[in-house]
Design a protein that fits this description.
Elements (H helix, E strand, L loop, with lengths): L9 H8 L2 H16 L2 E2 L19 E5 L24 H14 L11 H4 L3 E5 L4 E2 L11 H15 L4 E5 L1 H6 L9 E5 L7 H5 L4 H11 L8
Parallel strand pairs: 2-3, 2-5, 5-6
Antiparallel strand pairs: 1-4
């Protein structure tokens, strides 16, 4: 499998691509895609890194693994393809955006490419999954790779906003340098925790205020 990724990301991830575990990971992913129906399409596995140049990174949102239903996943966490029914978690995200920013706009598409193109890395912990089998590629060592991504960005960048929603993402981001970056945590936007720990977190206005404080363009959520 060839890695199709913007050249600017090789500065941060090139060393990781050369490690034995990562080469074995790619071999395992190829076997999975040959044996099973997997998502997202193989051409979109690294889509989160291909929406913008690494120098334009502003925000990192951490998810768990891609949606596992047919035609849903597009390589961006929490995002689904145009025409797919908006999943409950994403609908709750949109509702918090609306409440936080005092708008009445509710998107009709769950495709978050418009976020990503503004410098938001929508990073799943695992970049692939088998059809109808959540967390089925957890064992493939994707977690080691995405941990390395987070640590590299934490170490080499400054002034990034990390949005950690739910205990999984918070554990994943445990070692982010909070002296150099803004880390915002809350419950997960899923139905299970949404009313107690999600609504009212105001992460979207806080993110924009932080970016504007660095003379960066705020996100058009």
């Amino acid at each position: 499998m060839n890695i199709s990724i913007r050249p600017s990301w090789h500065h941060y991830l090139g060393e990781e691509f050369e490690k034995d575990y990562f080469k074995q990971l790619l071999v395992s992913v190829v076997k999975e895609y040959q044996k099973y129906i997997c998502y997202p399409p193989s051409t979109l596995i690294f889509s989160a890194f291909n929406q913008f140049d690494a120098d334009d990174l502003k925000v990192v949102i951490i998810g768990q693994d891609p949606y596992h239903g047919e035609s849903e996943a597009n390589g961006l966490c929490f995002s689904v393809n145009d025409g797919v029914k908006i999943p409950p978690s994403l609908r709750n995200i949109f509702k918090e955006v609306s409440d936080d920013l005092d708008t009445i706009f509710m998107p009709t598409s769950g495709n978050l490419e418009r976020w990503s193109k503004q410098g938001i890395l929508l990073l799943n912990a695992s970049l692939t999954v088998r059809k109808d089998s959540p967390n089925s590629h957890k064992h493939l060592n994707w977690g080691r790779f995405t941990d390395a991504v987070i640590q590299k960005l934490s170490k080499e960048k400054e002034g990034i906003v990390f949005l950690l929603w739910g205990s999984f993402a918070q554990k994943k981001g445990l070692h982010i340098d909070r002296q150099k970056h803004l880390v915002l945590e809350s419950g997960h936007p899923s139905f299970a925790s949404v009313h107690k720990k999600w609504f009212g977190n105001k992460h979207f206005s806080q993110t924009n205020a932080y970016l504007e404080g660095q003379s960066k363009r705020p996100i058009d959520w």
